[in-house]
């Protein structure tokens, strides 16, 4: 019987996600209006109501998730006096990686007296995944920002848990060129063991960090603490003639985490409130 020889070199490389999307908006004619929209690859942006103020934009990864070697970049430029709320169509899923890692790069720029609310839905981390995200924020004088990243290490209701893997989240927030917040969250390779430590998450698998840079931040400190309760902590600092409120939350699963996040976002995001796509 004839045999057929197979060569691994003839196997086509795995298809990878590659996407870049950019959005710009300005204050014009009494409200925030879209100035620029660029989309490439799997990164898409939709606006449910272009006449809404603040402008609300929805980020979409048409690939449905990320794995090793995938790359996404989101860039948002909010002009002076303008206001925008950015969310995602669904939870981003980070799947098992055979090699390399998935990477997401976020760049947010806000002009004088502008406001941005970066409120993506949760990132769901699967077992043996590898992921790195960088978030860089540049705020001008008087600009305000509300920034959230929530992560769920495994969907317990479906019998899934992220036991092994690598996860890295890097934040840099500057106002008038001065660094006002730096964040380096890194966990792995033994994710489950780290989360089980009392000084880490005490066995919780859902965690979130919410940062607010605004002159209004100090007045919202005690109401925010009332919402978070014993499932985390909230602190305040004075920075650059403004204020910085930082909340960290943990919960036994994604549902319990969102039950805390929903009223907290409604409190801190002012009249813009909760993104329309958020729901329990």
Rg, please? 20 Å
Q: What does the main sheet amount to?
A: 10 strands, mixed
Uncertain residue segments: 1-11
Number of separate strands: 17
Number of domains: 1
SSE sequence, one letter per element = EEEEEEEEEEEEEEHEHEEH
What structural class do helix, strand and pairing data support? mainly beta
* Mean pLDDT across every amino acid position: 91
Spatial separation of the terminal alpha carbons: 61 Å
What global shape is seen?
Answer: globular
Assembly status: single chain
Tally the helices.
3
Task: Summarize the topology.
Elements lengths: L17 E11 L2 E11 L1 E4 L8 E7 L9 E8 L4 E6 L3 E3 L7 E9 L4 E4 L4 E3 L3 E11 L4 E10 L11 E11 L2 E10 L3 H6 L9 E8 L7 H8 L3 E8 L2 E10 L2 H15 L12
Parallel strand pairs: 1-5, 4-6, 5-8, 6-9, 7-10, 8-11, 9-12, 10-12, 11-13
Antiparallel strand pairs: 1-2, 3-4, 12-15, 13-14, 15-17, 16-17
Helix pairs in contact: 2-3
